[in-house]
Amino acid sequence: REVVLRSAQRRACVSVDKNPRPPKAARAARALRLLWRRPTNTIPMLSQALRRIVRRGNCSKRSTRLTTMTKRAASGTTWTKEVSEEGAFERKPTTFRAWINKDERYPAEGNKRYHLYVSLACPWAHRTLFVRAIKGLHDAIGVSHVHSHLDEHGWRFEGEYVDELFGSKRLREVYDKSVSGGYDGRVTVPVLFDTKTNTIVNNESSEIIQMLNADFNAYAKRPELDLQPAALVADIDKINEYVYPRINNGVYRAGFATKQQPYRAAVADVWEGLAHVDELLGKNRYLTGDHLTLADVRLWTTLVRFDAVYTVHFKCLVRIKDDYPNAWNYMLELAQLPGIGATIDVPYIQRHYYESHTSINPHAVVPPVPRHFDNLLSLEHDRARLPRNEAQAAHIAAAAAAAAAAAPQLVAVAAAHALSERPRCCVATTAAIAVAVVVV
Predict the structure, then answer these.
(1) How far is residue 99's CA from residue 106's CA, in Å, rounded to a whole number?
(2) 3 state SS of 170
(3) Percent of the chain, pLDDT > 90?
(4) What is the pLDDT of residue 7?
(5) Residue tagged active-site, from 13, 122, 425, 426
(6) Which tens digit of pLDDT belongs to each residue from 356-392?
(7) Which of 116, 137, 334, 371 is deepest in the core (most CB within 10 A)?
(8) Contacts of 6 by beta carbon, 8 Å cutoff, 6+ apart
(9) Is 354 a catalytic residue?
């Protein structure tokens, strides 16, 4: 595309010098428009810049501007680079795939030898925060949060969002440490980093959450809480194979589609998937029955973002609260599990999606948080009508009691957040106040 645009630009400049109404420039502009019959938001701007060059004949300044715009269009972000010529979003596989304990370089250890790099906005990264919280791994595994905005250079650290290990300015710097000569691939979250070897262990969320669930039990506060029991592995895999393409990745396929047919196929998959899990959750407490598993974690991180982002921004056009009541109540129950509320930051999530995806939202206008998210952790749900595993329920109840005992400290943290310049952390602050009220 860049070659074609530069060729058209040169033709336009030559024609302006020879003729006030250049036929070559007109043909070049027409060819450019035909090249992308269903252009993205970037291409119309390039076409307009080309027409201004032809009309005004000011090639020197306009040429520089057009070249800059062309380079930006060519570079893009993680998502625009993963859109095929047919206009369909195709997610690329992750790169680092080592396992704790299975690889002799990475034995399980506590004392924060291993460190997570996450974004509070990313549903894949949120999975790791969920498991870290519910297993009680805060003292064993550290975490650094990237800034909400993702620009053409990738994830960055800024303001209160800092690299706790190295003070890096960009997450790419962390990736560079893991590869001799530097890393030139995709920079994604989450990342599980080993501070002893200064290398990335794994950046595939579905594998990281399995490690957090099983390999760090010696350092977990709730080691008996198993989110992937051997008896349910086959059921978990079956659910994941259904949910991932239709819901987890389905919303992204709908949101980043640049042509009508891929978009319609994607949004139909989303609707089908949501209807199926809503029906399933009308009969079962969790996706595999009465036991909370990693399959629930993977679905929940998409559901908790749906009404705030995917309904409008990704053009999915349905709301979990209104259209899928079982899924909505299920989402509330999991959000209110001990420690999970502190991992949810809806304003941050919205800022990321609406400000970073300029191909979808070029003016970066961010809507307000939906009203039904204001009291997310105190809204009643109806999931108690369905049975759940008693042993697992006892472990979760013990975790809730421990959280209640820590209520004064949580309230102090909430007050500090309220007085800071940070936009309302929404759920984390509400969680601390809610726990305090329960204790009183």
Answers:
(1) 7
(2) strand
(3) 68
(4) 58
(5) 122
(6) 999 999 999 999 999 999 899 999 999 999 999 999 9
(7) 137
(8) 67, 70
(9) no
Q: Please state which of the ranges 13-22, 89-98, 341-350 shows the lowest mean pLDDT.
A: 13-22
Is 229 a residue whose pLDDT tops 80? yes
For the cut 90, the answer to whether the pLDDT of residue 127 exceeds it is yes
Q: Which of 117, 183, 252, 348 is catalytic?
A: 252
Lowest-confidence range among 23-27, 115-119, 188-192? Answer: 23-27
Residue 252 annotated to the active site: yes
Q: Which residue has the higher pLDDT, 393 or 17?
A: 393
What's the CA gap between 150 and 90, in Å, rounded?
Answer: 19
Quick one: residue 198, left, alpha or beta (phi over 0 = left, psi -120 to 50 = alpha)? left
Q: How would you write the chain as a 3-class SS string?
A: CHHHHHHHHHHHHHHHHHCCCCHHHHHHHHHHHHHCCCCCCHHHHHHHHHHHHHHHCCHHHHHHHHHHHHHHHHHCCCCHHHECCCCCECCCCCCCECCCCCCCCCCCCCCCCEEEEECCCCHHHHHHHHHHHHHCCCCCEEEEECCCCCECCECECECCECCCCCCCCEHHHHHHHHCCCCCCCCCCCCEEEECCCCEEEECCHHHHHHHHHHCCHHHCCCCCCCCCCHHHHHHHHHHHHHHHHHHHCHHHHHHHCCCHHHHHHHHHHHHHHHHHHHHHHCCCCECCECCCCHHHHHHHHHHHHHHHHHCCCCCCCCCHHHHCHHHHHHHHHHHCCCCCHHHCCHHHHHHHHHHHCCCCCCCCCCCCCCHHHCCCCCCCCCHHHCCCCHHHHHHHHHHHHHHHHCHHHHHHHHHHHHHCCCCCCCHHHHHHHHHHHHHC
142 pLDDT above the threshold of 90: yes
Alpha-carbon distance of 221 to 218, in angstroms, equals 9
CB 366 within 8 A of CB 350: yes
